[in-house]
Amino acid sequence: MTDRRIESIKNVFLVVLFSTTILLLYLLWSHNSNNFSILNILAGSGEKADVPRLEEVMAPRYVAISDGSGVFRLAEGYTAHVAAAASEALTEACGQGPVAISEINRMQYSAVMSRYNSIQTALCCDIPFSDYAAYNGVSIGAPADQIQTVSLIAFSDASKESIFIYDGPQDRYFRLRTSADHEYTEDLVSMCTAGSESCYPASEILGFGRAYIAVGAESSLSEGRYISEGAERGRDLRTSMAETVMGENFDFVRRISDGFGNITYMYGYGQKTFTARADGSFEYSSELSSGSAGDFYSDLKTAVTFVARCGGWPGLGGEQISLVLDRADSFGEGRQAGHTYRFKQLLGGVPVRGEDEYPVEITVTNGQVSYYRRAVINYLEMTWSGSSQTAEPANVIANNCNHIYNVMHNNTLVAAVDEAFSEVSEALVDMHQGYFQSSQGSALVPCWIVRMNDGSDFFFDLYDAAPLGFRRSGEYGLE
Amino acid sequence: MRSAKRIIAIILSLIMLASVSAFASAAIVSPAKSSIVYSDSLLVSVKVSDAENIRVTVYEKKDSRQIEIVNDKGIAEKRTQYFSVDVKDFTEDDIALIAAGRLLDDNNEPILLSTGAAVKRYTDFTVGEAETFKNETGISFYTKQLSDVKPGLYRVKVELLDGDGLVKSVSSHIVAVKEKELAPQEDVLSGQQNAVTVIQNLLKSIFK
């Protein structure tokens, strides 16, 4: 009798243990199955990180407003909510009935934007339209197949039932004609604070091109100095980041220091490495996994979450530093597919760029982070001077057209000035005021940030238009 | 006689060549020639090639009429009163006729505008101060935005100066400034996906 009871109790225990095992496995693998990894388990819950919403990090490159007089003004300050509202407007309008898509030419687009009240939202980067539509719930159907990428969304009182999309890589303009009139132009303009500077299309100032260029620009930016986040937060940051990616207990992790001050943590035989460099930057890489690739937004969510957990997301606590998405590239080779995202820093709303890598670069492969580099800075000294005249933006381009042309074409032969000028003017995408992060003396130099349509970036002194540096598109891994 | 003709021909050629290169050194990008601007601001953009000095002056062309004014002594005096040109109904062709400067056609008949009025000569009044601009090398732009511009007829004059400040050549563009509300409400979006767009896309896809 007693033996039978003992056997019964053992059977009950076995059943309970087996059921618990099945339940635990289900819980572990059912959530975010695309992102399941040992890393997540080893890292544990840790401190709960503040993760920004995707809309917050996808601030538009610019928002251009026109009152129909041919003069444009760029919105100032925080504009991420305007891009989000533009997406919501597109979703709402497309959901109200059938949508007719047709292509228009550049002249027609320019006319509806300049001759009527209008607003144009240039997205932070080119986004595959299929991913954009899926994420925002935009339902159009097969006619939308001709739109491969969405670079800009615009509204104009020239056609209140229409929404305009610009596909940058294809250089094509589309008109989405919905079933009813809307007041989106007025609604979105009311969300913006228009700057005081007047901008005109480059074709009206330079004779060529479609980028908006300011006339008689002024600025209060002056030189400052920066310090790397690694140097500022020191060992605490290094340790917390290492624990996040390697686990708190550093099981199976080796720590290697070299004579240059770099410290490397290596898991196993190099399946994962994390390096804290002497210059204050951090680099993480992981062997590729066999998960399934995500789309633009799911990979971006993975990337943003990872950055927030590993080092923190600057700017969420109300400081004047923030990170916004500036560039995204997709890749797919064999069984490996994913996206690389590059984030730029904003200091007091002013973009900071340099010839070196972006402050945050992160690659998501097959749904998991395979590479992460972080070189965030903070300002050490910053002075704000009174407003003064900058170098005329038109002359920044004109005086440096040969330099830009030679860098874009990667040669040193001198092209005819007119040929170089016309090509550079046509290739100009936008130019904004910002800071150039100089490696000499840790200086922040006020500059014009000039982007060309091949992805190259050029930096010119804000007040005397002298070249400060550049970064070719090839150095970003673009074609 | 033959050598004199040859010398005259050479001199005329040199003058023409100098004129061509001089005009090529400074070109008015905005406002476009004989154009209409529907705004209360006017953009002036001049492209200067090579090391050249220019002087840019903006005028408002005003119409005039004779009026009689009785002075303090009770004597009627004739005076000229100037007023802005009413450009409300002007077309670009009208502006081109005014810019050409001819009042009579080949039959000595008055040249008429689209409004039915005869082409007139107007008087230039300077708007603001004339400004000089110096280009050291390569290409540079003189740019300026005039704000609070009233409707009327305007002339942008660009003078190419030599080293002593003397005028080498002059070029002008005349523009009509109209109120924004008068802009034509044509449907610019009609005729989409026209043949030009189709051909452009085809060429882009071939040469991508």
Number of distinct beta strands of chain A: 25
Would you identify the CATH architecture of chain B?
Sandwich
Q: What is the percentage of strand-forming residues of chain A?
A: 35-45%
| Coarse shape of chain B | globular
Structural domain tally of chain A: 3
The poorly predicted ranges of chain A are 31-36, 38-46
Terminal residue distance of chain A: 79 Å
3D architecture notes:
The complex is a heterodimer of chains A (479) and B (208). By secondary structure, chain A is of the alpha+beta class. Chain A is built from 13 helices and 25 strands. In chain A, the strands form 3 sheets. Chain A has a 15-stranded mixed beta sheet that branches. In chain A, a hairpin with a 4-residue loop joins β22 and β23. Chain A is globular. About 3% of the residues of chain A have low confidence. Chain B is an alpha+beta fold and 208 residues long. Chain B has a single domain, classed as Immunoglobulin-like, CATH 2.60.40. In chain B, the strands form 2 sheets. In chain B, strands 2, 4, 5, 6, 8 and 9 form a 6-stranded mixed beta sheet that branches. In chain B, a hairpin with a 5-residue loop joins β4 and β5. Chain B starts with a helix and ends with a helix. The interface between A and B is medium-sized, with 38 and 30 residues.
Topology:
The complex is a heterodimer of chains A (479) and B (208).
Chain A lengths: L1 H29 L7 H6 L10 H4 L4 E6 L4 E5 L3 H15 L5 E5 L1 H9 L2 E12 H8 L12 E8 L5 E6 L4 E6 L6 H6 L3 E2 L3 E4 H4 L6 E4 L2 E11 H18 L6 E5 L5 E5 L4 E5 L5 E5 L9 H14 L11 E13 L2 E12 L2 E4 L6 E6 L2 E7 L2 E13 L3 H7 L1 H9 L7 H11 E11 L4 E10 L4 E5 L5 E5 L8
Parallel strand pairs in A: 18-22
Antiparallel strand pairs in A: 1-2, 1-4, 2-8, 3-7, 4-5, 5-6, 6-7, 9-10, 11-21, 11-23, 12-13, 13-14, 14-15, 15-20, 16-17, 17-18, 17-19, 19-20, 22-23, 23-24, 24-25
Chain B lengths: L1 H24 E5 L4 E4 L3 E8 L3 E18 L5 E9 L7 H9 L22 E12 L4 E8 L5 E10 L5 E12 L16 H12 L2
Parallel strand pairs in B: 2-9
Antiparallel strand pairs in B: 1-3, 3-7, 4-5, 4-6, 4-8, 8-9
